[in-house]
Amino acid sequence: MSPNYAYITLSSGKSYLPGIMAMYLSLKRTGTSIPLYAMLPSDLIRKEADLCERLKTNGINILEYSDSISIPQQLIDNNENHGDRRFSHTFDKLLVFEQTQFDKIVYLDADIYILHNLDHLFQLPHMSAMIAGKSYPGNEDWTDLTSGIMTLVPQKGLVEKFKDLIPQVIKEKGICGDQDILQAYYTDWPHRPELDMGEKYGVIAYYAKYYEQHLGYKYTGQVEDSHSVAVIHYAGEMKPWMQYWSPLSVLKQELELTALRLIGKRNTDAVLLEYKHLVRKARKLLYAK
Fold it and tell me: What is the pTM of this model?
């Protein structure tokens, strides 16, 4: 019997649905036959039934969940006061770890642009991930996992263990999100190099030009090349799909992208233009009358 694999992403609110659609368009373009599931809370599915139906119509499966992971008001206030309020909405990601209807999961954040087929990540062991941004100047001591892309073997009981760690992590760090909980649970991860996918699976967008110009990363080549970028991660609070582009700006973007394609130049700027193009297509698929 073939293993039951799934890509899974998650959003606890409406604002990330265009990101999910854009990410799915980039995933589909890689030729994968493995389905993508979007985990969405029951109230969102009920309130945004039309948008969720559009996701399904375009090939995204929906996994409904009703029990969100609650966090203390103290943490919500701490995150807000430190300008990291988005972290308070990430804890439901931990629910992915108990989706035992699947044999193996590759979790994907909604705010990523996929450039290579990622199906080989299902062959990696549980908790394979990467350390985003560790090669950027000033980040050399970063050793802990990033939760934007992970290979998981789901297991019942993990969520309660994660939840039990929340008070401890708040006490130690003050502010935190799902990633901090995973780092606190998988304390041996930094000492297991076989679990590190490599930075190419989540190059942070605002570091990307440095990686290209100074570290030899590129947007061409085969997936086996450790410096051929597989994923760009648009981390940060303001996502590309949350931005408004005037018709004149859109025309300029399309002309620039066409010119770069004609001369065969695929650099960081070209990849951002590609992603913006996908975002506009995602918006049309979700919101067109």
Answer: 0.94
At 186-212, the pLDDT tens digits run 999 999 999 999 999 999 999 999 999
Task: Kindly state the tokens that stand for 247.
Answer: 């018709």
Contact criterion met (CB below 8 Å) for 218 and 211 = no
Of the candidates 82, 97, 100, the one whose C-alpha atom is nearest the C-alpha of residue 182 is: 97
Q: In what order do the strands lie in the sheet with 203-204?
A: 112-114, 231-233, 203-204
- Cα 158 to Cα 94: distance, rounded to the nearest angstrom: 8
What per-residue string of b and e applies to 246-276 under the rule 16 or more CB within 10 Å gives b?
A: eeeeeeebeeebeebeeeeebebebbbbbbb
Each residue's pLDDT tens digit, 215-264: 999 998 888 899 999 999 998 878 999 999 999 999 999 999 999 998 98
Helices 268-287, 208-215: inter-axial angle, 10-degree rounding: 150
CB 263 within 8 A of CB 286: no
- CA dist 31 to 35, 92, 119, 231, 273, Å? 11, 29, 9, 15, 21
